[in-house]
Amino acid sequence: MFFEIELEHRIGERTIALQFQSQARLTALVGPSGAGKTTVLNCIAGLVTPDSGRIAVNGVVLHDRSHRIDLSPELRRAGYVFQDGRLFPHLRVMANLAYGERLAPAGARWIESAEVTELLGIRHLLQRMPGTLSGGEARRVAIGRALLSAPRFLLLDEPFGSLDPARAEELLQLVERIRDSLDIPILLVSHDRSEVERLAGEVVTLQ
Amino acid sequence: MSGLLSAAEWGVVALSLKVSVVAVILTLPPAYFLAWLLARRRFPGRILLDALVHLPLVLPPVVTGWLLLLAFGRSGPVGAWLDSVLGVTLVFRWTGAALAAAVMALPLMVRAMRLSIEAVDRRLVDAARTLGARPWRAFLTITLPLSAPGIAAGAMLGFARSLGEFGATITFASNIAGETRTLPLAIYTGLQVPGAEAQVARLSLISVALSIAALVISELLVRRSGGSRAHVL
Predict the structure, then answer these.
(1) What would the mean pLDDT of B190-216 be, rounded to a whole number?
(2) In what order do the strands lie in the sheet containing A60-64?
(3) Alpha-carbon distances, residue B125 vs B40, B49, B144 (angstroms)
(4) B174 CA to centre of own chain
(5) Are residues A78 and B123, on separate chains, in Cβ contact within 8 Å?
(6) Of B23, B34, B63, B229, which sits 20 to 30 A from A146 (CA to CA)?
């Protein structure tokens, strides 16, 4: 099983409840905005502790309330591509890319930085500061940073949102390539039906 | 330049700079720690700690000086310990003047640093954690460098405040020529004796110049590293 998720989390008046198991290499998480899709990703990445539940990815238990297991974010090794990019503003693109790469356990890396910059077409951006990048460029750097941290799984939060169609298509093809050529489970949050149909092996709906 | 001031007056300026520099260096680590604590942590007693940090800002300086005397005086709990264990005496010494200046500078330094720490997006720290950084590394690589403008600005503000310290210094460290007589104390002393008007004017002018320089440098540091992000004043 790639993803085994069972969680309940209360935010204010609302309770997010989700339970699913997925065998697919790419699982899409869909639902109306405000349903708590990003919160689910945060729970899986270890940034938010759910009120109750169990989270396992690729056979590794990341969180299990009843067994008092709760790995800290740095030990979960999620390749989390945030909706807002979150590049480190004081570091050049190169240093942003290297940030997680340097921290990854030796031997865990499964992709070279040269390959990533090639794949994402960001070689010409390496010396730039994040503040000078366009939205699409920043998004690609954020994906590259996540890939280079030797993640055990990818969490993609609306990676194609707010991009022009041509850029979105490029990134879509990139995610397809990652899905087909790299052996790591991907959880994609999206509200675009055509994206989901094209990419996902399984679709999970959050109400 | 040397004709501008007498040797004794240069001595006063040098002492003032020494006292202020030491005070700022002494205060930087605890001030940053307090700023981080107040900006990032929620704990019982936080409001009390906040008030305590700000106390020197609103308390009559003479009271601060007296409290320092109680704690760090030769028979005070801390002072007696310092004297017997480390052989350090603070009262009537320039180190005492530095301590008084440090305590008075603390609230300003904490305020500047706290603002800059609060301005660091926590979500960047989250991102660092998911990339494999332990909390300490995330702090050192993200929070610390991004709040650097506040550290620099806080240091300059603290320096300017230390240069002007009077009440707590004269109460705690006294007014001893060549040892604790910093610029404000020398100016005050000059006002007590007839015929020292020119000296008072010269030292006051130096005070004004140093303070303006510190404030301008502080503002420039903030602009250079933080863009238009933060203004501490």
Answers:
(1) 91
(2) A14-22, A3-11, A52-57, A60-64, A69-70
(3) 12, 25, 11
(4) 19
(5) no
(6) B229
Q: Which residue has the higher pLDDT, B230 or A79?
A: A79
Residue of A nearest to B144 (CA): A90
Side chain identity at residue B76, one-letter code: G
The helix/strand/coil state of A107 is coil
Residue B217 has pLDDT above 50, yes or no: yes
pLDDT band at B2 (very low <50, low <70, confident <90, very high): low
Q: What are phi and psi of A30, to 5 degrees?
A: -120, 170
Is B127 close to A45, i.e. CB distance below 8 A? no
DSSP A23-35: -SSEEEEE--TTS
Low-confidence ranges of chain A (pLDDT < 70): none
Nearest Cα to Cα of residue A105 among A72, A76, A133, A143:
A76
Is pLDDT at B203 greater than 50 in this prediction? yes
B136 CB contacts (<8 Å, ≥6 apart)?
none
Picking from B124, B131, B137, B140 by the largest number of A CB atoms within 10 A of its own CB, the best residue to mutate is B131
pLDDT at A182 (0 to 100): 78
Q: What is residue A120's predicted lDDT score, i.e. its pLDDT?
A: 85
Angle at B172 between CA B168 and CA B174, to 5 degrees: 100
CA-nearest residue to B145 within chain A is: A90
Interface of B with A (CB under 8 A): 121, 123-124, 126-134, 137, 141-142, 145-146
Whole-prediction pTM:
0.86
Distance of alpha carbon B228 from alpha carbon B72, whole angstroms: 42
Here the ipTM equals 0.92
User: How far apart are the CA of B133 and the nearest CA of chain A, in angstroms?
Assistant: 6
Task: Please count the residue pairs, one from chain A and one from chain B, whose beta carbons lie less than 8 angstroms apart.
Answer: 56
Give the residue-averaged pLDDT of B123-152.
Answer: 94
**Binary contact (B127, A88; C-beta < 8 A):** yes
d(CA A107, CA A101): 11
Task: Determine the residue of chain A that is closest to B149 in CA distance.
Answer: A90
The pLDDT value recorded for residue A13 is: 85
- Please write the tens of the pLDDT for every residue from B165-185: 999 999 999 999 999 999 999
Segments of chain A assigned E as strands: 3-11, 14-22, 26-30, 52-57, 60-64, 69-70, 78-81, 153-157, 186-189, 202-205
